[in-house]
């Protein structure tokens, strides 16, 4: 069993390896230095995420089902734009999940997935100005829920 | 475009074969001759993404509610207005002859205005300059009616716009808009309508977002509306601040969208959900 810190370090090491000069295919936009800074994957709050709240958030506020298939049978017509999240907790560590929720463009600059915890976006509607889609604690709740999908 | 029509159709069939989550798309077969008029290469009119009932409404001029606006526009065509007491007809004659093909070529660079204008703006220029009449408000019933009536004279003709020469900077601005992320959802037009068409967001089947049927009667609106109204709605859905209807931003985008639809034919007035 890995400690959480080891997991974060491993994930960061993996990410750095992917972004390193040995990567075969040239990227459209070279990642800046510090792109895969481990602090970007650290928990956003001190309070542990609540998977029950997280499950509610992925349905309602997060609108994750718009694009992703998830093991939430009471909701019909899950979208098929993104990959299925049925076993995402087996594929990705919490730190990796968090990074993808906070700002998935770090992984794929061309992704249609929103950045759920990012400000400074272009031409946000006035009533949402200065807001993020999820709060820091809500991101933690969603991460906690997704980590249970194994 | 990244994928072909056949590949998209194949993917749906594959999903069905694998027993995956299958959402019931409206039937569409690219080889079916009844769709030939609504396809050009990999380009697919919104007609091909519509439910059969909606297609049926568009097909029949008597059930197509957009024809109420065509008829209203036809009446306005011969109605004198303004200090010059002139009607469109007094200069342009019979619309059925002299407006044929005009709507298919807008937006276009206008030498007198020294900018790209769309059909709505061109009609208003005529009112002010030649009729001595006030501009019709964007999205007002008379402007929608006249725009629909004029564009309808090009029905079945391929969309063909000039994007080089003096139109080039406007076209480039429209292209930039199309590929620029915006709003809290941080999406560009191209994400849904170029990369992801044929996929689903919940029950929503993403179309290519082709604009060749505007002004369009939308069942959701229960009335006919302009392309700019639709663009503002799209922006609101991704939680972006919309631009005013008739703004240069949407007019430039309209030019880019027209270029993108080239090969498809004018369907005005189209019917969509």
Structural summary, described in words:
- The complex is a heterodimer of chains A (150) and B (273).
- Chain A has a single domain (27-148), classed as Orthogonal Bundle (Cytochrome Bc1 Complex, Chain D, domain 2).
- Chain A is 33% helix and 0% strand.
- Chain A has 5 helices and no strands.
- In chain A, helix 2 (51-59) crosses helix 5 (136-147) and helix 4 (94-102) packs across helix 5.
- In chain A, 33% of the residues are buried.
- The model of chain A is unreliable at 1-6 and 10-23 (pLDDT under 50).
- With 273 residues, chain B is mainly alpha-helical.
- Chain B has 2 domains: 33-64 and 159-272, Cytochrome Bc1 Complex, Chain D, domain 2; 67-152, Cytochrome Bc1 Complex, Chain D, domain 2, CATH 1.10.760.10.
- Chain B has helices at residues 5-17, 52-59, 67-77, 88-92, 95-98, 119-131, 141-152, 168-179, 189-195, 227-237, 248-260, and strands spanning 39-40, 43-44, 108-110, 115-117, 200-201, 204-205, 216-218, 223-225, 270-272.
- A 3-stranded mixed sheet of chain B has the order 8-7-9. A two-stranded antiparallel ribbon of chain B has the order 1-2.
- In chain B, strand 1 and strand 2 form a beta hairpin.
- The A-B interface holds A 65-67, 69, 77-81, 105, 110, 112, 114-115, 118, 121-126, 128, 131, 133 and B 15, 21, 23, 180-187, 191-192, 195-196, 199-203, 206, 235-236, 239-242.
